[in-house]
Specification:
Blueprint (H helix, E strand, L loop, with lengths): L1 H16 L4 H7 L16 H8 L10 H15 L6 E3 L9 E5 L8 E12 L3 E7 L7 E7 L1 E7 L5 E7 H14 L4 H7 L7 E2 L11
Parallel strand pairs: 4-8
Antiparallel strand pairs: 1-2, 2-3, 3-6, 4-5, 6-7
């Protein structure tokens, strides 16, 4: 009985740690659920700082999470050629992303809650990347060819899958956002690194995330 009590306490503490604050809920619910949230830009000092902040996990069962997921999709659809978006890009430092799945028939858009890359291949791709939050910036970047991903859906169910090629690149880009990593800063850090180049990109044009 005592063990069950302590497990309940731990579970409640975990859920409370994921609760959205008043600022976050205000942003999420400011406007119609079917409308896009504004995409933050590095050209604005406050928005830039938000993009650099670390993101924390979110409760997938919170109704506000479903609203955030829906409005993030609208934000992505409102762009010209965007293939992915992360919650920090709409002002919410929480672990939620959308990715266009070029590895699936029809190239569907899919959301991922609390995504974690638990394995990356040593083999690297080199290809072009842009960013919805960084105007007029584009460069070549190295990314792992294959990753193993774990994530949760809006029902709280956990999933795991292997992803490769260009879709794996999008995942890595968006998950970088959750750690406050921007490609403009990443470029400086990898100048002295060397990789074996493998071109696995199948959609090298208009790759903005």
């Amino acid at each position: 009985m005592r063990n069950i009590y302590f497990l309940c306490i731990l579970f409640m503490g975990f859920m409370n740690a994921q609760e959205l604050n008043s600022r976050e809920t205000a942003i999420i619910n400011d406007g119609d659920i079917n409308s896009a949230l504004s995409i933050y830009q590095t050209t604005d000092d406050h928005q830039h700082q938000t993009l650099l902040n670390l993101s924390t996990e979110i409760n997938p069962l919170d109704p506000n999470t479903a609203t955030l997921v829906k409005r993030m999709k609208e934000s992505l659809l409102s762009t010209n050629g965007g293939v992915g978006i992360a919650a920090p890009q709409v002002g919410i430092n929480r672990k939620v992303i959308w990715v266009q799945r070029f590895d699936k028939e029809g190239n569907p858009l899919e959301y991922f809650i609390n995504p974690v890359i638990i394995w990356r291949s040593e083999l690297q791709n080199l290809g072009p990347e842009g960013d919805l939050s960084i105007p007029d910036f584009r460069d070549q970047f190295y990314r792992s060819k294959v990753i193993q991903l774990e994530y949760t859906d809006l029902k709280g169910e956990k999933h795991s899958e292997m992803v490769e090629g260009f879709t794996a690149v999008i995942f890595q880009h968006e998950i970088d956002h959750l750690f406050g990593i921007l490609i403009s800063d990443k470029k400086e850090k990898e100048k002295n690194d060397s990789y074996k180049q493998v071109d696995a990109y199948k959609k090298s044009d208009s790759t903005t995330r």
